[in-house]
Design brief:
Blueprint (H helix, E strand, L loop, with lengths): L1 E2 L11 E2 L28 H13 L3 H13 L5 H13 L3 H14 L4 H13 L3 H14 L4 H13 L3 H14 L6 H11 L7 H13 L9 H17 L15 H9 L5 H19 L6 H16 L8 H15 L5 H8 L22 H21 L3 E2 L6 H12 L16 H9 L13 E6 L5 H6 L5 E7 L2 H14 L4 E5 L12 E7 L8 H9 L2 E11 L6 H13 L5 H13 L17 H8 L9 H10 L2 E6 L3 H10 L9 H10 L8 E7 L3
Parallel strand pairs: 3-6, 4-5, 4-7, 5-6, 7-8
Antiparallel strand pairs: 1-2, 8-10, 9-10
Helix pairs in contact: 1-2, 2-3, 3-4, 3-5, 4-5, 5-6, 5-7, 6-7, 7-8, 8-9, 10-12, 11-13, 12-14, 13-15, 14-16, 14-17, 17-21
Length: about 700
């Protein structure tokens, strides 16, 4: 919110103030207010108000609130006081009182844009979305360049299902202030959850191009929009490839497609088939020493990055293997150039060819895209190898299943990701509340440093997500040294300085000798020999009233995976890249209809994800009834599932009496009607009850 320090004949600069929940009672209002001034006389009304603003701007909300209360009790009719006090009440969860105070501010000064915007925030929290929309629009009417109001309006319009209007509002934010915090990550998430056919396609292409140029976003969220706009164009263009490859329109001024190949793992079988064929075509062409144009080389480089991202999951023929041997021998014999190296990068990670092609590491090029390819496929993997030498290790990994899981993720660190964004920091209870809405929790440790454990951090995406917690110190553990080295590289790149990475087994977390406020353990316990034993180990280091986020497989939602695992067992397939490709070929062929639907799962489209999905060394699946029994026996309070708003809205239609959406018996009935609800996992928050 904004607080102005004084109004009158002269206007002072507006000060931006971040408001946070107050973790304790405000206390009684002091009768005698002491203000530090240069004058011995009694402080003036304006001095008292300015002192309140100062406390507010410093984050001292308790003292600010006391002064606001004093001002109101003394009858000061200052619109800023009522507006700011309303914002504090809102963050305390006292929404009705916040609404009254903010409306009083508007009554005093009807053209105070900030109060209208703050009222919109309060009404949104109250679930009065249409009223919130009206308030934001009123704020914008008063102040046409009010960026924050446009941003919040976009969020409300999104929740109201007014996709095009929400899209326009987000674009307006970028137009007014291209550096507005979180706008690019917000619009990326919005596009992930929206039907692109309902949006203006010209604007959609413009924003997609802009988003793919940035390196601070989770680009995978743009896959649906990219497929909608360009997949047919790519397929039609590439299917026409012949001897006049260089004349294909696709490769002229199509930077957006090149950027997508470099940053988004394509998860579309039609694209996979055509890219597999194009790769074979290009490999054959280079083997025959045919000329390759600059635009073709740029495409090959982008395809090499795509293949590295999906870990070379595409099938290849014996003819391609022979061609690759020819090209490798050429490189060994001195024919080292961008063309040969780039086509090899489409089949092998280049760092694994360093022993064969000794001078590959020292090859110099002026082509910027080629330099980026070398960075991705040689420099970064070698960095990880070096970083792995200094990762801290605690305890030993003796459990047989833990050893098998460790071996899997050493071979295939999971998941492979390139870019992400650091969210605006919020209090931990606010972050949890955003995920468990409409349920609501408060926390008593808002001002103390939080200790957070990411149990099973993999390659570090959960570390990135946990950066949104304010005032937090993170510990991240995993079995896999390769995964931890990947995570450490990303932590270093992003400048994250509040996390310690440790190689260890969850079964030995007591060796950390710490008690944690929050533990995140998503997609881990169900891969242990005894998930309940792992849960008890985590609960042993979770503080009373602490919060635990779990992610566990649903038995009902993974019937196709069970069929796949049975098929793999019958065929005696091993979790090697070659046999994973063979398995995928069987799925794609359609010969085995019981596993054909695996193509609909995003995890089918990279080697590590497919291995994790179908070839895992250990997998347990649960029912909601089992979850309920486990939570009860461990004295854990269920706080809510982390699900998209449309699913929660549908649930409300079935069970309107469940205001907090926390009745697990109802959720069990809901899942029976909608068995794909938890197709990924049950993701949910619980709290540990005080003993």
């Amino acid at each position: 919110m904004d607080i102005s320090s004084q109004e009158g004949n002269r206007k002072k600069k507006i000060i931006e103030v971040k408001t946070f929940p107050v973790p304790f009672a405000l206390g009684e209002i002091k009768t005698n207010i002491t203000i530090n001034t240069n004058s011995p006389s009694k402080p003036s009304k304006e001095q008292i108000i300015n002192q309140a603003f100062k406390f507010h701007s410093q984050g001292n909300l308790a003292e600010a609130a006391k002064l606001y209360q004093y001002c109101i009790k003394q009858g000061f009719k200052d619109h800023r006081v009522f507006s700011n006090y309303g914002a504090i009440l809102q963050n305390l969860g006292k929404l009705q009182e916040a609404e009254i105070s903010t409306r009083k501010s508007i009554e005093i000064k009807p053209d105070f844009a900030m109060a209208h915007s703050n009222l919109g925030n309060i009404l949104k929290d109250l679930g009065k979305l249409q009223d919130a929309e009206f308030s934001y629009r009123k704020a914008i009417e008063i102040k046409p360049d009010f960026t924050e109001a446009y941003y919040n309006l976009g969020n409300v319009l999104r929740d109201l299902g007014k996709s095009q209007e929400a899209f326009n509002s987000y674009l307006k934010v970028i137009e007014i202030n291209p550096k507005f915090s979180n706008i690019y990550s917000s619009i990326t998430r919005f596009l992930k959850d929206s039907d692109p056919s309902q949006l203006n396609q010209s604007k959609l292409k413009d924003i997609l191009n802009l988003l793919l140029e940035r390196n601070d976003l989770s680009h995978w969220e743009l896959l649906g929009v990219f497929n909608f706009l360009y997949s047919n164009e790519i397929i039609i263009s590439l299917e026409k490839l012949d001897s006049d490859f260089s004349n294909t329109d696709l490769f002229i001024n199509k930077k957006v497609i090149f950027n997508a190949l470099k940053k988004i793992t394509f998860k579309d079988m039609r694209l996979e088939k055509v890219l597999t064929n194009v790769r074979k075509y290009l490999c054959n062409k280079i083997t025959k020493n045919k000329e390759i144009s600059y635009s073709q080389l740029q495409f090959i480089i982008a395809l090499g990055e795509q293949c590295f991202l999906n870990e070379y999951v595409y099938s290849l023929t014996e003819a391609e293997k022979s061609s690759l041997n020819i090209i490798i021998n050429r490189c060994i014999n001195g024919e080292l150039n961008e063309k040969n190296i780039s086509i090899l990068s489409c089949y092998y990670p280049l760092y694994k060819l360093l022993d064969q092609i000794l001078c590959l590491k020292s090859f110099i090029s002026s082509n910027q895209s080629f330099k980026e390819l070398i960075e991705l496929q040689i420099t970064e993997p070698l960095k990880e190898i070096e970083l792995s030498k200094n990762i801290k290790k605690l305890g030993s990994i003796n459990d047989d299943v833990s050893q098998k899981v460790k071996y899997q993720y050493e071979e295939n660190p999971y998941p492979r990701w390139r870019y992400g964004y650091l969210s605006k920091k919020v209090k931990v209870n606010q972050a949890i509340n955003n995920e468990i809405k409409p349920n609501y929790i408060s926390s008593n440790n808002e001002d103390s440093q939080l200790k957070i454990l990411v149990a099973g951090c993999g390659t570090g995406k959960q570390i990135l997500q946990a950066q949104r917690y304010k005032n937090a110190q993170l510990t991240a553990i995993d079995l896999s040294l390769s995964s931890l080295a990947y995570a450490q590289r990303k932590v270093n790149e992003l400048g994250i300085d509040n996390v310690e990475l440790i190689e260890m087994d969850i079964l030995e977390v007591s060796l950390l000798k710490e008690q944690f406020d929050v533990i995140k353990c998503s997609g881990v316990l169900h891969h242990m020999n005894d998930p309940l034993k792992g849960l008890k180990a985590l609960l042993g280091i979770l503080k009373n009233n602490g919060f635990l986020k779990l992610g566990l497989y649903s038995k009902l939602a993974r019937k196709d995976v069970v069929e796949a695992r049975n098929y793999i067992a019958r065929k005696n397939l091993k979790p090697t890249t070659t046999e994973i490709r063979r398995f995928r070929k069987d799925v794609i062929s359609g010969t085995y209809p019981e596993i054909e639907n695996l193509q609909m799962r995003s995890s089918f489209y990279s080697t590590s994800e497919c291995r994790d999905l179908c070839f895992h060394a250990q997998e347990h699946r649960f029912t909601i009834n089992q979850l309920q029994e486990t939570l009860k026996s461990n004295e854990l309070e269920f706080l809510g599932f982390c699900l998209p708003k449309p699913i929660k809205s549908l649930y409300k239609q079935y069970f309107p009496e469940d205001k907090t959406l926390t009745n697990l018996q109802n959720w069990e009935r809901f899942e029976e009607k909608h068995p794909n609800t938890f197709r990924a996992m049950y993701q949910f928050w619980v709290s540990k009850k005080e003993n």
